[in-house]
Write a structure and sequence with these properties.
This protein is of the alpha/beta class and about 600 residues long. The chain has 21 helices and 12 strands.
Length: about 600
């Protein structure tokens, strides 16, 4: 049987062979992470399967000895005490083992989860930058991450599968040594139930995989309905009832259908259960007749009852456990594929000092897996300590140009040169030490306080004076000084410090000023700003850029739509449809009354 794919998701459902291979890989990775704990789990699987059979055996001997002792057999009276002691010892051993096993499980879960999570972080943070914008990589990472988060749980389930499998075969084997025909009858009775349970589990998993979108939609609706910042619009637009109905529809599409699967299999499973019950009752009737005929001891009734029930229960448990890990084990392939992605290469050349020039030579670029050219034949030169402005309408290619400048991507055609040497020949980490980059989508570190939000600009230093200057230059000193705990104030209202002081929420403009302060604190020789003041009022913006453009020892590249900022640049590059269509000073471009003038005409007037 070959592997199948679900129509909607393309998610492959593993064949039994593939499932066995995947389980072996999980076991191998677990053993590499915590060999001692894995060996303990495997021994535990055997113990969990064998001890109940041994208990049943001694219970049978105890019952027989009790009957003989009641009949006056002196040796049976002595033996029954030892059998009781042995049974009690097995019970005590099981309790002690379970206690140790709980600790080993917790320890192993921590070690395995930590190891796998660390590997995932290392791999994710070492990829080439283009992969972070690649949907295929993002989807692969999401699936791999899901497996990584459940890895320790999957191994626990695999240990349970092994235990149930051993218990099933041990039970049938124990019956075989007692009576081979009885063992065969029980085995035949087990097979239909196992087969039907397996079919039901596979059908439910197929349905689960086919309804990922329905569950995702339901989860997003539920999340939106419970967000205080969204409820105003939802109620104002009368969407609450509509979304509640959508939620119920998605729920029924997912959960109700799974219940229907149970109904469809109910009659068949009932027949399988009847067959198992008949085999169990038949076994007990047979052993009862044998006891009455004097061919078996009385205790064998207990033995047969316990072993047959154990074998049948283990068979059902085996399939049930196997079905719970089917989807997670399938994700192992995505996990391994993600872990095998090529990491960003570590180049030998280091950028030792601030470059005298950065040059784009006939650069054209399109994103991976895309046919659309974002940049075409772009040529420009940025000299040391020069102040550059890049302007253009949305989609003109400005931000993409900044990504190439930062070394996040390599040009599809042409070259980006640093002091006449290709940028992609340098170690990207050493290049980034020359840059301070603030994008439109800056990061809000809500889990940290004000001080740390600024110090994150350069975690290798802690300079209180530079911190003060950075806050002042970013127009952030005033509002941060008025926060309840000053620079120690956390910036999320559900975060508290060690003294129980609650955090606060900042406005968009305040967050942007704090991000600017972080950028200034970095004190890099090349400053790149992509719409850095879109949420800041015009007067504050003017003060910020007046200070910034007075920095004669900095190379500044800024993207902006505000003429007051652009006027301060030494050179302005006007972009349109991925090309540079004009360049010169702001006054020169205004005088030409061409693309630049038409874009900023309302601000000029």
């Amino acid at each position: 049987m070959g592997q199948t794919k679900h129509k909607k998701t393309g998610k492959k459902q593993l064949t039994l062979k593939e499932q066995a291979v995947a389980i072996a890989r999980v076991a191998k990775l677990s053993f590499q992470t915590a060999p001692g704990a894995v060996l303990f789990k495997l021994v535990g699987a055997v113990v969990g399967a064998v001890v109940p059979l041994m208990t049943a055996y001694f219970a049978a001997l105890t019952t027989t000895s009790l009957v003989d002792a009641y009949g006056g057999n002196e040796s049976a009276r002595r033996a029954v005490l030892w059998y009781v002691i042995a049974t009690a010892f097995l019970g005590l051993f099981s309790l002690v083992w379970q206690s140790i096993d709980q600790y080993i499980q917790a320890s192993m879960r921590y070690r395995v989860e930590s190891k796998v999570a660390d590997q995932m972080y290392e791999q994710f943070l070492s990829l080439d930058f283009w992969r972070y914008d690649d949907k295929t990589t993002a989807d692969l990472y999401e699936k791999a991450q899901k497996f990584a988060q459940l890895f320790a749980w999957v191994f626990d389930r695999l240990a349970a599968i092994i235990s149930q499998l051993i218990a099933m075969f041990a039970g049938v084997g124990a019956l075989f040594f007692f009576n081979s025909w009885l063992a065969l009858a029980v085995l035949v009775a087990i097979v239909p139930g196992v087969y039907l349970q397996f079919k039901l589990s596979r059908a439910q998993i197929a349905h689960w995989n086919n309804n990922v979108d329905a569950r995702r939609t339901k989860s997003m609706i539920e999340w939106s309905l419970l967000q205080p910042d969204k409820i105003t619009e939802l109620r104002l637009y009368g969407m609450v009832r509509h979304l509640l109905d959508m939620r119920m529809s998605m729920r029924d599409k997912d959960e109700k259908v799974r219940i229907d699967f149970e109904r469809h299999f109910m009659s068949k499973r009932l027949m399988a259960d009847v067959l198992q019950a008949a085999a169990e009752v038949g076994s007990l009737i047979w052993v009862t007749l044998e006891i009455i005929a004097g061919r078996q001891a009385v205790g064998q009734f207990v033995y047969v009852q316990q072993v047959v029930g154990r074998a049948m229960g283990a068979a059902t448990g085996f399939v049930s456990e196997l079905s719970t890990v089917d989807e997670e084990v399938a994700n192992l392939f995505e996990y391994q594929q993600f872990m095998q992605l090529e990491r960003s290469s570590s180049r030998l050349k280091k950028v030792a000092s601030t470059p005298g020039s950065i040059e784009f030579q006939d650069v054209s670029f399109r994103y991976p897996n895309s046919r659309q050219w974002v940049l075409r034949d772009v040529s420009l030169t940025i000299r040391q300590h020069q102040h550059i402005a890049i302007v253009g309408e949305n989609g003109a290619g400005k931000t993409t140009l900044i990504k190439l400048l930062a070394g996040l991507y390599t040009p599809t055609k042409g070259s980006v040169l640093v002091d006449n040497k290709p940028l992609n020949e340098f170690d990207v980490g050493s290049w980034h030490k020359q840059l301070a980059l603030l994008r439109q989508e800056f990061t809000e570190y809500g889990f940290a306080n004000v001080r740390d939000n600024v110090l994150f600009g350069d975690v290798e230093k802690n300079d209180p004076e530079q911190l003060r200057v950075a806050l002042h230059d970013a127009e952030a000193a005033d509002f941060t000084s008025k926060l309840p705990y000053g620079l120690n104030t956390f910036l999320m209202n559900w975060i508290e410090d060690d003294d129980g002081n609650k955090g606060v929420e900042l406005s968009g403009g305040q967050w942007q000023r704090l991000a600017l302060a972080r950028n200034f604190y970095r004190d890099a020789p090349i400053i790149i700003l992509d719409e850095p003041t879109s949420a800041i009022d015009a007067l504050a913006e003017a003060r910020i850029f007046n200070r910034l453009f007075k920095e004669k020892d900095k190379t500044i590249v800024v993207i902006s739509h505000r003429l007051t900022t652009i006027k301060k640049a030494d050179v302005v590059y006007m972009m349109k449809d991925g090309r540079i269509v004009e360049q010169g000073t702001c006054q020169e471009l205004i005088g030409r009354r061409d693309e630049f003038y038409r874009m900023f005409e309302s601000q000029i007037q």
